[in-house]
Design goal:
Structural class: alpha+beta
Radius of gyration: 26 Å
CATH class of the largest domain: Mainly Alpha
Number of domains: 2
CATH topology of the largest domain: Glycosyltransferase
Strand order of the largest sheet: 9-10-11-12-19-16-15-14
Helix content: 25-40%
CATH architecture of the largest domain: Alpha/alpha barrel
């Protein structure tokens, strides 16, 4: 077979430019264009990268420079392909400028004689990631970039890409990037028998990371989070689309797994379009919708087209309606806005443009059902329902339009705790609430679970390694330890969680080997105005309210005092919440002695309805059976042999 033969792809649309397209399609084109315009303002002649303001990563300057080219390039490629189907006069100038600049940047950056040279890739270098991404862009831009280069220019770029051959790639989703580079080299005539063998070997490794239910463990990170969507199911679908003719059986496996994942995935999106801030790289924001367009195009999605578009559009518009731009007008590092303290050390100014993946629907034809059908709003049956997923150890539940992830066991590897283990370690994560950081980088934040502080120490320890033993639609149970090896401090914790509406019942059985202070923190409430946040109440019910959102904790047993972790004014130190400048978290506290075993139980609420936040009546707390009553939520009976008897 001719190594440059290319099977027609779903994004290679035939026919003339359309005279008109659905309003939804044009809206997405305009959103993409609006993100590209500030990037175009940074395009300078003789430069190979965009000088996007932000932090420096822990890689190196060349890696940051390439990242600030590759990711915006892929965004532009998505928009550019859509303009082949529909464009107007105002698009022409931007198209011409960007095409010329990206062509120049590719040739300068890959030229070892140029002062703009990015340098070659190397073992475990970030260049491997960006080169793999660049290949996707080159495939998308064949008609105006790659095929327009002469043989000498193509040879120079291929030689640069060849520096990734034989390199080590991190044992996680990064192995896809090495595969894309080798596949492209083979297609462009740099074929070696070894390449196909290595591609097959890497795929064996990647497929070995598949757990079940559509979820992959992200290799050495040992994590299950949104990377499953915008890495695993995005890259695998791109491989199917670009190079899948090499192994039809593998294509079917990937498509079957993506289909299984997409079956459950819609529940992760709130009515607002937001998804819970959970795991690493959340500054990619609406990137979470990355697999919807590709899975739809390849027949690998069970989600109806109208529903898929509705989810993608709500997610995109949720974040675009937030102040997510930095001073240059480019995408910032943060969540609701620019907030560098929450960002991982591998990130830099160009990093947020992974968000380009969310624009894969623009590769669908305007007449595709994705665009033609009526939008389907969030399903009414999404209310008060839960899906238990045993492979990632997560329960996703939808209630009152928000989404809550109950985390039975997902974690980050001990070698990657610099990313912030609290991003995986809280008991639950909820849209509209986000989370807080600790005022001390050496300590765990207080919100979202139980923490322990050894007597005489300043360090606060939270949950990390976790062994789940119950993952059900109505109940979660897990076993973990609070403490650290340097202090040889350890508190064993068995936690069980049940839920009803916006309330959780949380029961901890703790075995403390050292004297310690234990604190259970509820959801953290944030606001742009600290004066709006009110801390109210005392034992047994303590509440935080911003007027719009609220969170409460009601002590049942084991706790003897209340407290708050708050930033209500600038005098309270630097900002610590990912959503806004000010926040407060309600706390229940107690002290335990060395060699003490104790049961701690509380009710935790987070929502918008003040009547819903009222205290529960504790009707009966017998061993194995608890009965609670609430003026709004009615009766709640929980039966489990682990429930202790509590005298009142």
């Amino acid at each position: 077979m001719d190594t440059k033969e290319i099977t027609p792809r779903f994004f290679d649309h035939a026919g003339p430019v359309r005279e008109n397209v659905p309003a939804s399609y044009r809206k997405w084109q305009n959103y993409a264009r609006a993100l590209i315009e500030p990037l175009a303002d940074l395009m300078e002649e003789g430069r190979a990268n965009l000088d996007i303001e932000g932090m420096a990563s822990d890689h190196d300057e060349n890696a940051d420079r390439l990242e600030a080219l590759a990711r915006p390039f892929v965004l532009f490629c998505h928009w550019e392909r859509s303009t082949n189907l529909f464009r107007d006069e105002r698009d022409e100038e931007l198209l011409g400028k960007c095409k010329a600049w990206f062509r120049q940047a590719l040739l300068l950056g890959s030229d070892p004689e140029s002062d703009q040279f990015f340098g070659y890739s190397a073992n475990f270098h970030q260049h491997s990631v960006e080169m793999g991404l660049f290949v996707i862009g080159l495939e998308l831009s064949r008609d105006w970039l790659w095929d327009d280069l002469n043989e000498v220019e193509q040879a120079r770029v291929l030689s640069w890409l060849e520096s990734d051959v034989g390199n080590g790639h991190h044992w996680n989703n990064h192995m896809f990037f090495g595969i894309f580079v080798l596949e492209f080299l083979q297609r462009e005539g740099r074929l070696r028998t070894a390449y196909r063998g290595v591609v097959d070997r890497w795929f064996e490794e990647l497929e070995g990371m598949y757990a079940d239910e559509g979820w992959y463990m992200d290799g050495m990170n040992q994590a299950f989070d949104f990377y499953n969507a915008y890495a695993w199911h995005y890259y695998s679908m791109w491989w199917v689309a670009l190079y899948g003719e090499a192994n039809p059986g593998r294509c079917e496996r990937f498509k079957e797994r993506t289909n299984r994942f997409m079956k459950d995935y819609p529940i992760f999106f709130a009515e607002s379009g937001e998804h819970p801030a959970f795991g690493r790289s959340i500054s990619y924001r609406f990137n979470s919708t990355a697999p919807f367009g590709l899975a739809h195009a390849l027949g690998a999605s069970p989600v109806p087209a109208g529903e898929a578009r509705s989810i993608c559009q709500r997610s995109l518009e949720f974040f675009l309606n937030k102040p997510i731009s930095q001073g240059q007008g480019c995408l910032s590092l943060g969540w609701y806005d620019e907030f560098l303290p929450m960002v991982e050390v591998y990130s830099t100014g160009g990093s947020p443009y992974w968000a380009a993946k969310a624009f894969s629907p623009l590769l669908l034809a305007p007449e595709d059902p994705f665009w033609e059908g009526e939008e389907i709003p969030a399903k009414p049956d999404n209310q008060d329902r839960a899906i238990a997923m045993k492979a990632p150890c997560l329960i996703a539940r939808s209630v009152d339009g928000e989404v809550e992830i109950i985390n039975a066991g997902s974690q980050i590897a001990s070698t990657n705790t610099r990313f912030g283990p609290h991003k995986w370690g809280r008991l639950s994560y909820k849209s509209a609430f986000g989370f807080a950081l600790s005022s001390d980088p050496a300590s765990y934040p207080f919100d979202g679970g139980l923490t322990a502080q050894k007597e005489g120490s300043e360090v606060v320890y939270g949950r990390h390694y976790t062994a789940p033993f119950a993952i059900e639609p109505h109940h979660m149970g897990c076993l973990y330890s609070l403490g650290g090896k340097l202090e040889q401090f350890q508190v064993s914790v068995e936690t069980r969680v049940w839920w009803k509406g916006n309330w959780q019942l949380i029961v901890h059985r703790v075995i403390a080997k050292d004297a310690a202070t234990l604190r259970h923190g509820g959801y953290s409430v944030s606001d742009l105005d600290g004066a709006k946040i009110q801390n109210k109440g005392g034992m047994p019910l303590v509440t935080v309210s911003s007027g719009e959102y609220g969170a409460s904790l009601q002590a049942i047993c084991g706790f003897d005092s209340t407290g708050y972790d708050s930033r209500l004014s600038a005098e309270d130190g630097p900002r610590r919440h990912i959503q806004a400048a000010y926040h407060s978290t309600a706390l229940l506290e107690t002290k335990v002695s060395a060699d003490e075993t104790r049961d701690l139980a509380c009710l935790s609420w987070a929502g918008t309805n003040e009547a819903d936040s009222a205290a529960w009546e504790l009707v009966s707390l017998a061993e194995g059976r608890w009965e609670l009553s609430h003026e709004k939520n009615g009766s709640w009976v929980i039966e489990d042999e682990a429930l202790p008897e509590v005298s009142r």
